[in-house]
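User: Show me an example of a complex going from sequences to structure tokens.

Assistant: Sure. Here are the input components:
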Amino acid sequence: MSSTPPGAAAPAPPPSTVACTINGRPHTFPRGTLIVDAVRQVGHPIPYYCYHPKLAPVGACRVCMVQVEGPPVAARGPIVTTGCTTPVFEGLKIETMSEPAKLARRQVLQFLLINHPLDCPVCDKGGECDLQDFTLGYGPGVSEFAEPKVLRRKAADLGPFLVLDQERCIMCQRCVRYESEVLGEQNLVLKERGDRTVIDTGQGEPYAGYFSGNNTELCPVGALTSRTYRFKARPWDVRPVASVCQGCSLGCNVTAQTRAGRIVRLMLRDNPAVDGGWLCDRGRYGFGHSASPDRLTAPLVRRDGRLVPASWDEAMAAAAGGLRRAGGAAVLGGARLTDEEAVLLAELTRVALRTNDVDWRVGRQRFAAPEAVGARGAAIADLDGADLVVLADTCLVEEAPVLEIRLRRAASRRTAVLDVGPVRNFRIGRSTRVPCPPDGLAAALASLGPKVAAAARPVVIWNGRGSEDVAEAVRALGAPVLVPGEWSNARGAEKAGLVPDALPGYHALDDAAPVEAAWGASVPRHPGRDARAILEAAAAGSIGGLYLVGANPLRTFPDGGLAAAALDKVPFLVVQDLFMTEAAAAADVVLPATGPLEKAGHVTNLAGNRQTLAAVAAGPGGARSDGDIFHALAAACGVALTGRAPEVATEPVRRVLTPGGGPPAGPGGGALRLLLRTRLYAGGGTTAFDPNLAPLREDAVLRLHPRDAAAAGLEDGGAAYVKGGGSTLTAAVRVDPDVDAGHAELPAHGFGPTRLGAWVDVQPAPAEALPGRAAAIAAVSAR
Amino acid sequence: MIRHILTDGMDEFDLTRLDVYRSRGGYEALAKALRTMSPDDVVNEVKVSNLRGRGGAGAGTHFKWSTLPNDGRPRYLILNGDESEPGSFSGRMLVQKNPHLIIEGALLAAYACKMARIFLYLRGEFHEGAEVMARAVGAAREAGLVGDRILGSDFSVEFVVHRGAGAYICGEETAIMESLEGKRGHPRTKPPFPTAAGLYGMPTVIQNVETVANLAPIVANGGAWFAGIGPAKSPGTKICSISGRVRRPGNYEIEMGTPLRELLEEHAGGLEPGHALKFILPAGASSALVLPSQLDTPLDFDSMTAIRSMLGSAGMLVCDDRDCAVHVAYLGARFYHHESCGKCTPCREGTGWTEKVLHRMEHGEGRPGDTKRLSDLCAGIGGRKCLCLLGDFSVTYLESALRAFREEFVAHEAGGPCPVAHAALEVSAR
């Protein structure tokens, strides 16, 4: 209650805006607005280096000098001060182009240049460099510095992506501030003092984080540059195209720049509602697969036991014939298509192949849209204001990395994070762990009910894995849910009906009329089989043909043994992909498709944001887009696809989630419980074939608790045999206290771990035993 | 009549021993405050005393305390013992020889301002001082003077002795907080000011060790007694460090307002016979030169500011007719180049440029235009272009040297041996 006596006027709050003048014209700004922001807002040019809208002001470069006069410095007359550290005041007169301000900026620019190497002709930043631009705009025309310059390291190697030129650095500290303020990391730090100060990694080790590339865009000069862009182009050489990263289901907005049809770099395109203006390194640098010499460039047809090049017509005829043979066809995959292509595949499956045996879920994710299981969807920006975030055994930094940045920032303010699962998922920033075994997630989530109910703005993040009891536990929490997908467009695939128990637009199978009206054709009404049932049927020899669309169940399906048996036994296998994957090597027909950077369309991200994909690069000559292939394949089956997407059902079919399949739980043969988890640099998709990402590949890395490592005689950095289910895998060892004791973690999409069963034994292996990828492919293709 | 408030008995007795310090009335002011005075009473005595900070800026101690917000957050007191100004060595003496006077004063400040914790930040090179202080704090803790329920009262405060890593910048009041937090010693932007959001974001008061050393005498004798010593606007005493071309270099505690001539000629024994005073750097390397014609200036904050110099920490460097202005300027430039923290462009780059030019001039490689270049550098670095005052400090002495001894700089532009006969006056920079 207020203690103000009745009738007394409450003290007037200070006005929320202040009026001031900029270059003689009056303006009004919210109280506390920094002068540099005010000047920018009204459109006057002002140079700055250390200032950045996403970083706290630091006042280091001193180049945003303006002249101010008025309160609180009225008595002193006009003074020159930095716009990035001074807020606007009522009555302040700001002059950006007065002689004292111009002189101060010229002096600062002169100082910035004295120890700069001026090697613009060989600098990657040339043409888009703030030091060039501001010197031209505000600096002295000639350097009066005649003394020897300070010499530092040039082309310093900071790991696979970053190259640092310490001499070009102007010490704006944007990078070190980004590391600490945005990431909560310290991968880049300042060392030494005065004009000997340099940027470096802490101990000279390679940059270790997942978000190094953002530094190259924050850096206003040519100090931090991308290895992949070194000496590749000038800004006026490139064609910028706006598109969306398809590295994960977040769909960060990017601008792709091409030179002569080849992508030279991806840059962030700030979308506050999705990416907050950051990219992860896999997204930024994972474009190398597009121009890889390993791309499939022509259709392949198996003749006399060997895959040989064929024309598209031959391949289509072979595929259409094989898929329609006795026993019927089944379709797996589709979660990397565009929304439009996913609808085409749904139509192809239902109308041309006459089956509901279709499932995008060739991994562990069971659903993509929260609404499909009766939960409420959250917006990405909901994380910013959340007071409680429940991480349901979901590791954002590996599964949707840029979303992790948002959560870290939230956690650094007021958001409490409950990290549920057998591994610490949230490693930087405050959180409370709720440990549980891999099959105890539902119970652990249920125990959090009161906490979530007490929260004002809770958000649950669950990657949609597990079975109906986990889905029920998530539903029961009642909070909005975000579902990071196992593939980039899982949500689009689900909505397009690439599932056995629902039609496009979430129409139930007995609600097929709108779908049939859209397509002008009837669709089968009997429920189809899910991925596990399809693979079981294939392994039993009861399916005529299997069509894998951008899918490689040998790596991704939780029961790798079943997947291998299915691909071995199925009479006819069609694989549509970018590369000769293990599955493609086993196919009867291989169809080369274009990749996510090579086709236009729309994609739906983990929060339901529908975004536009552009064809940035051409792709190899012989490849076709997935959509074109669906049209051609349907035509070969005598069907013309409409591509029309039916209206979304007003009451979406609510689906029951059967477990994704995998070895049975419970005590098994081994001592450690196997955890298969998503890792950013593991997998069999484009990541496996991207030369830019090759140095960071970690297909076979075993993570386990120090106690378990010691018990097994394993050392960090060594090699281990992992045995289970009659199978043995060789892996590099990482001792990791954030993996709970009793568990052995392997990358889910690596090659081999899905054959091991639920319980494994580990023992030391000689280092030379670590497998190569070629050997793995050879083992499968010799079927 | 010379009054010694801070150094009383320091040379005759081992005041580092708690029993000796107490036998001479030590910690009685603390006992008096805890038993008979409220925190506000102590604040009031300090207000009446008109005590001003001894670190250099001369800010009113009571004013600083009065800006602390009353919002229930924990408050911290930082004692600045990062004495790094060339020619200043009074703080080191106090720390090494009269540690309990600092501790007692800090406890009184903490009691008055309801501080949760006291941090003594000592210059990295003060190995001995750190040991003396650690022993003194330990003895005080054992005697119930530091820690929980001090002297049986409800007042509790912890006292932390921290040694820096040897950086001039960490004597700056915001860089000292960064350093204490384990970060790089870089100054922070202001606002927020330390009393609003300082160490670990909490309201923080930063005081020079000599400032708090005055608090026990003030509480013991009353603020009015202190206010009566020296000039009304800068009362009390000041320990002046004087070195260079004098016969008796050392620390001298003088009453504020004592003429500089008296300090130089009577306390420090004057110059060596046969030599004439050329100039004095009164506040170490960071102040404008005082010329022989200004020797009668009273040593207090306002009088020194009036002659466009400053009292600062009163580290007086005395130069006579053997000392070349260019040589002294080179030593100063070397110091500032070495100590610039590197955060702000003008200071980071400008101090190095200045040293390089002066290095050439000093080593017989002067070029035409060097003097003007130095003036331009001073204009580019100074005038509040940098975040903290180090940038301005780095040119203040040089600007005044260029004004007073311009012909010596111009003479060096010709190259060759120094035209001003001099013997080396060493200001340690490295």
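The lines above are the inputs; the final block is the predicted structure for all two components together. Residues 1-8, 773-783 of chain A have pLDDT under 50 and may be disordered.
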